[in-house]
């Protein structure tokens, strides 16, 4: 169950009592407030609160740059200019607070983005639920033979069944031992902060994650990328859909200049110019390493 009965009751109560406000609101984001978007088998993403909209970005930019922005007469053009030239502070005027439920191993990867405020569910004070991430069959893949941090072919048949059985059995056994170590049936038991160390990395945790839009875009650029690990990418893709509804002009610029864009090194730009001039360029004559050349060819042929 992604949400507990208590959390569902809290959401229902919050949504049933709308409050008037004088601050700017974004209709698209208002529709997302408190709504739980399911991710993976037991995970979720939901918006707890937010501040700002597209107009907050342009307002901050015009205050900051004054006369320098008069040539950009409309908000969409200004936002695209800011994104195109890698401005950051105007996008920092918008903030959002998410409630995220995610497997621990995804959380450890996620926390590498040190530009947010985070408060995680504490297993020192509370007992974690018996909920584990078990990959869907189409995500049960072998190690890639060309990428040390990627996946290869999908496991099938008996091999897939064997791995799934091991994942389920190990998770359940670890949780059984976790429960048996806690204080129960008159036993003194082990402290929760110690008993938790026996839990597997695929157990679910939860946190509140608050971040400004500039740093959220950086997170999404990396984690919504096709090369990102699937388990964190699906969270990023869910957030992309939310952000698109929140700040549609800023998200369109982000999608164009960051998410769907291709960055060229100086050497790669030189190769393109030489190709356009009719020269046949090989990896040996490009000045690029084999890895760089492979990545270049994947985009440009």
Automatic annotation (TrEMBL):
The active site is at residue 223. One of its GO terms (molecular function) is NADPH binding. Keywords: FAD, Flavoprotein, Methyltransferase, NADP, Nucleotide biosynthesis, Transferase. It comes from the Bacteria. NCBIfam families: thyX (TIGR02170). Catalyzes the reductive methylation of 2'-deoxyuridine-5'-monophosphate (dUMP) to 2'-deoxythymidine-5'-monophosphate (dTMP) while utilizing 5,10-methylenetetrahydrofolate (mTHF) as the methyl donor, and NADPH and FADH(2) as the reductant. This is Flavin-dependent thymidylate synthase. The lineage of its organism: Bacteria, Pseudomonadati, Pseudomonadota, Alphaproteobacteria, Rhodobacterales.
